[in-house]
Amino acid sequence: MNTDTTHNPALQSWVASANAADTDFPIQNLPYGRFRRNASEPWRIGVAIGDQVLDLKLAQATGGWPADIAPLLQPLANGDLNTFMARPPAQRRSVRQALSAALQAGSPQHAALTPCLAVRADVEMALPCHIGDYTDFYAGIHHATTVGKLFRPDNPLLPNYKWVPIGYHGRASSIGVSGQQFHRPVGQTKAPDAEVPTVGPTKRLDYELELGLFVATPNALGEPVAIEHAEDHVFGVSLFNDWSARDVQAWEYQPLGPFLAKNFASTLAPWVVTLDALAPFRAPFERPEGDPQPLAYLEPGAARAEAAIDISIEVWLQTAAMREAGVAAHRLSRSNFRDAYWTVSQLVAHHTVNGCNLQSGDLLGTGTLSGAAPEQAGSLLELTHGGKQPITLPNGETRTFLQDGDCVILRGFCERPGARRIGLGECRGTVLPARA
Q: What is the fold, at CATH topology level, of the domain defined by 134-432?
């Protein structure tokens, strides 16, 4: 993926906060989200710029856009990100370039667009688009290996893992936007020493540090997407927390996989960072020596040099006691998407190789993204070695799994010399007590 003028690290915006070194949303980013200023206002699509949101409904109406851009802005003005995502990559890229030009310092659109800004902290965010279907993959090999060791010490990875991207179909209806609060789920579990299972609130509630990939241009039923075209069918990336009830999962997952342990809640960041914005942070696709190379339909070929993406992702925890004492969240771990075993293009190529038709707005979860080191674990299941080794927080509290009142915060960013740091915002969710 080639960079262009929109990635120039020297670019400055007339939105002053976008020029701050620590902002997640400089002019080189321009992620999309769905927001409203108050409950009486229809949802609309905006672009994050510094601590502001550019309202694309108001912006489109100002005029001043190139003749070929104005019609492309119409679905965004209508609050319909799905339709915009379905447009060809070249059209989506041209809108990015037009937005970048309009928000640059010295832009002739400065005066007209200033009234189209809203303070980001003052708006309500929703899911960025309609999510019709949700698939969760298992692309993090370090997570798969560590969890496998807990259950199969002599054979942690099943024979198919290094050949096929493992995934399952999840539940789209329970995906909520950052800020989501959900009740501790109830399910059926069976203690190792019990003769029969019981029903009750999960005692082993966990988070999963993931990324969500949004499908852009759909493919027709029966028409696989070739790997060399796969990224044309992906719009962008968000932070994603696929909460898990580990005790429910252990009892129910055989023979058909996750069910009630996963479908009670998943939390998604409100901003979609486009693949175009991530172009400066591409990394080589590499397999460890001795591992099998991908089958032909999963082979990146000439794109190997930039098939992976360097995205740092973090988990932070703030307990109820920390919140009441005014203590900030504590970082539990940091890992990186470049360590995933399967790339974005491989996930799409595999998902469609049987003719499955992906739709604009479908969400593909990466699965838990852990690193090789223990402190890079993307779940409490790994950090606490299956609940056997509690972690101690700075205020003296301990955790094996999540307790009521815990707030989990995911954060992500990309940075490298010669490029402007960009962020993914944050993905925040809080555990409430189980319903009576």
A: Fumarylacetoacetate hydrolase; domain 2 (3.90.850)
